[in-house]
């Protein structure tokens, strides 16, 4: 069974959107591709856990998913400034 310590955290950056839900992307080193997710920044400073968007067989993210966290340079407090 997975514990939180087993799940990696990836830093993401905001993507301009006209939708109400913020959109994010990060460069996946396993797939060598951008993965996009939507979600709000939560009280713990992350965007929460996501199932992996990985399409590359064997990507370790496929087992665990990942926590998304906005890169610090895009945040003031918990407000995205990207
Ligand atoms: Zn991936």
Q: Can you walk through the features of this model?
A:
- This protein is mainly beta.
- The chain has one domain.
- The protein is 5% helix and 38% strand.
- The chain is built from one helix and seven strands.
- It has one helix at residues 61-64, and strands at 9-15, 23-28, 33-38, 48-50, 66-70, 75-76, 79-80.
- The strands form two sheets. Strands 3-2-1-5-4 form a five-stranded mixed β-sheet, with no helix packed on it. The protein has a two-stranded antiparallel sheet with strand order 6-7.
- Strand 2 and strand 3 (33-38) form a beta hairpin.
Q: Would you spell out the secondary-structure blueprint of this structure?
A:
Layout: E1 9-15, E2 23-28, E3 33-38, E4 48-50, H1 61-64, E5 66-70, E6 75-76, E7 79-80
Zinc ion binds at residues 28, 30-31, 35, 54, 56, 59, 61.
Percentage of residues assigned to helices: under 10%
Assembly state (oligomeric): single chain
Structure classification: mainly beta
Integer-rounded radius of gyration: 13 Å
The shape, in one word, is globular
Strand proportion, as a percent range, falls in: 35-45%
Order of helices and strands: EEEEHEEE
Number of domains: 1
Distance between the termini: 36 Å
Query: Number of helical runs?
Result: 1
Instruction: Give the overall average pLDDT.
Output: 89
């Amino acid at each position: 069974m997975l514990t939180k310590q087993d799940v990696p955290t990836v830093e993401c950056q905001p993507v301009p959107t006209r939708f109400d839900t913020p959109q994010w992307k990060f460069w996946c080193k396993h797939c060598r591709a951008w993965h996009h997710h939507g979600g709000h920044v939560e009280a713990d400073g992350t965007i929460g856990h996501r199932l992996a968007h990985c399409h590359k067989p064997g990507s370790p993210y496929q087992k665990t998913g990942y926590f998304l966290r906005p890169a610090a340079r895009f945040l003031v407090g918990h407000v995205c400034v990207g």
